[in-house]
């Protein structure tokens, strides 16, 4: 016997395909082509019937969906129809639907799309079902679904044929329904806070706002090279300059980087900016929003993720990057004054760095090495080195650091926020430092954006801003191990 994960033998598949095409040809010859049907008036879904059984018992309803099982027993048969909300059983008897229609029903294949009219009842075993009075073939399935006992388990096939994955794996469909609800609830929360949703360009001449390599393309109409955006930041801050005090955008961004369990080259980012607040305001907003989303989507603020239980109900810890490194490695960078001392310490601890790196870069490398994976419960890591934060306001008390935080949950960055830099002179100097880093080999460095500098020279109020990776948030709230599990169509190498 073939193993469950082995492909169906080609001769068996060819036989099935031929049989299904022959059935379609027979229908077409009899003027019953299912592809000529343009609509079907569905009035109930399977979950509606089960939830409202007491009200619907004995009443006629119309459902439509995919035939997932069929048990023919002489003059009567049972089948299961799967729609958006689940599956429901239908009892199909020759005496109820008519002899010709019953013959047609017996020729249906698993995977066919059908419409069923029937009376709601409960079987002797207690299963809520429909006693069919009419069964209509709405679309013919010409290829078989995966073998029913083992379903669709090969991950590559699941991602490439998400449409089959959604049919065969109910938990997958539930994840994407929940993803939609998460985004709906984010909008509801922010709208309630007075934020305005906006849209900004995806094709840009200068892809800034993050440390990432962009995708490049060519705009034929203008004969100009352009880039796909890597961030939403610089255009949204232009809107703050324009007087729109609270703005956010949820949209795709594109980064020319590798693919792994947490990264996909195109992903959904949300950024929001609020005038007259700072990074502490962004912490409060973030904590409140994560708690709200957990309550609305999961029904609780304590949620499972992998082997951990994440508590979003209690106050999130707030710790500086230097304090976090000291806690988890015993190294106190407050005692490390120079780049030379930092590099010597990195060599001692086996931390790889580049010659161009300064003290601040090495602090960040130590954080990534010793701290990140240990931050399981929600933690705001604050006050990053200025070298790794080119768009952020300096801390007045120590200009070597900036007013920035990252939120970590289960060792993963979930959000990145600043007290936004609104000093155009300082911003120009930071851009110049980024240009020098690019010239020294940093392909992810920002480039000078003259129009953005012009906007800052017009004047931007004190502002707090933050970016959230929506896909990672969905991973958290659906307990999904990989980003591909929450993207309907993840990026894959061509199968050709």
TrEMBL record:
UniProt keyword terms in alphabetical order: Aminoacyl-tRNA synthetase, ATP-binding, Cytoplasm, Ligase, Magnesium, Metal-binding, Nucleotide-binding, Protein biosynthesis
An annotated GO BP: lysyl-tRNA aminoacylation
Domain Aminoacyl-transfer RNA synthetases class-II family profile: 179-490
EC number: 6.1.1.6
Required cofactor names: Mg(2+)
Reactions accelerated catalytically: tRNA(Lys) + L-lysine + ATP = L-lysyl-tRNA(Lys) + AMP + diphosphate
Gene Ontology MF terms in the entry: ATP binding; catalytic activity, acting on a protein; lysine-tRNA ligase activity; magnesium ion binding; transferase activity; tRNA binding
Top-level taxon: Bacteria
Binding site for Mg(2+) 2: 413
A GO cellular component annotation in the UniProt record: cytosol
Signal peptide start-end: none
Entry binding sites for Mg(2+) 1: 406, 413
Main localisation: cytoplasm
PROSITE patterns, A to Z: AA_TRNA_LIGASE_II
Cofactor note: Binds 3 Mg(2+) ions per subunit.
CDD domains reported for this sequence: LysRS_core, LysRS_N
Subcellular localization(s) per the UniProt record: Cytoplasm
EC main group: ligase
Family membership noted in the UniProt record: Belongs to the class-II aminoacyl-tRNA synthetase family.
Self-association state and partner proteins as the record states: Homodimer.
Listed name of the protein: Lysine--tRNA ligase
Gene name per UniProt: lysS
